[in-house]
Amino acid sequence: VQLVESGGGLVQGGGSLSLSCEASGDIVEIGDMGWYRQAPGKQRELVAIVASGGVTNFASSVKGRIATSRDDAERTVSLRLNSLKPDDSAVYYCYAALRLGLSRRFDDYWGQGTQVTVSS
Description:
Layout: E1 2-7, E2 9-12, E3 17-24, E4 27-38, E5 45-50, E6 56-58, E7 66-71, E8 76-81, E9 90-100, E10 107-110, E11 114-119
């Protein structure tokens, strides 16, 4: 199973960034899918999670600046974050709860992360 992120890089403050993540492998069912981030010296924190029913939870720090989308047929989740601030600089990780093969349970999977740096 792999979660492969795309997007990120160096972005000017006030601008926007788009991230995408695609899951691949012997996936039977996708539970929650979304994004976390981790800045240097800080704990990994939730950015946005899209539940399988479509309900989305956002971190308070990004509310009003974020849009997410999810496509279970394509096994993708995407994020667009606007009005970027230097505090948005972090490694962004794709997350998915996946049920594989003959398993009856969901397990947590992570992408390798993509660096986002916002210039002031």
